[in-house]
Design brief:
This protein is of the alpha/beta class. The chain folds into two domains: 58 residues; 97 residues, Cupredoxins -  blue copper proteins (Immunoglobulin-like). It is built from two helices and nine strands, in the order H-E-E-E-E-E-E-E-E-E-H. Helix 1 packs antiparallel against helix 2. The longest helix is centred in the C-terminal third of the chain and has 38 residues.
């Protein structure tokens, strides 16, 4: 009887984890797009916005516009580079954010005495979609096996009862 309760609890917990994590995945899917677009203004000696935040797996599209001088845009870890961005002529770069972490954005065109300090930051967060999907699949798998085990258990008990009657 204790074994049956344990299986029932396992089944309920597996279903609960599976459905809750699937709900989280769906909530993020509707609120977040897989394509993240940013309009970045480059000026002496910085970027606005200074920090860009995306999720792992997102397609990132960044349009950079210079406000005052010739600037550049470079994210070394992603090999994304746009040189010679002239004032009034926006340039667009795009890539898939496949690495989790914090990455520096540098100006790739010398634009003045404080050029080395012209930096921004790209933050790539782990994808909740992936984590939620993995939890959902795991929870539903546990629930399935608990259900199969519960279904097979009454047959064994009924066999024992039949043997005792004989």
């Amino acid at each position: 009887m204790k074994r049956r309760r344990l299986l029932l609890v396992t089944l309920v917990l597996g279903l609960l984890i599976g459905t809750t994590s699937t709900g989280l995945v769906m909530a993020q899917s509707t609120s977040d797009s897989y394509v993240k677009k940013f309009n970045v203004k480059a000026f002496r000696f910085g970027y606005s916005p200074e920090v860009l935040v995306v999720n792992q797996g997102d397609i990132v599209v960044i349009t950079v516009e210079s406000q005052d001088a010739v600037h550049g845009f470079y994210i070394e870890e992603y090999e994304v580079r746009q040189d010679s961005i002239l004032p009034g002529t926006p340039q667009t770069v795009s890539f898939v954010a496949d690495k989790v972490g914090m990455f520096r954005i540098h100006c790739s065109t010398i634009c003045g005495s404080l050029h080395p300090f012209m930096m921004g930051q790209l933050i790539v967060q782990p994808s909740i979609r992936f984590i939620g999907s993995a939890l959902g699949i795991s929870g539903l798998t546990v629930a399935f096996f608990a259900y199969v085990w519960m279904r097979s258990e009454p047959k064994e008990e009924s066999r024992k009862e039949e043997d005792n009657k004989k």
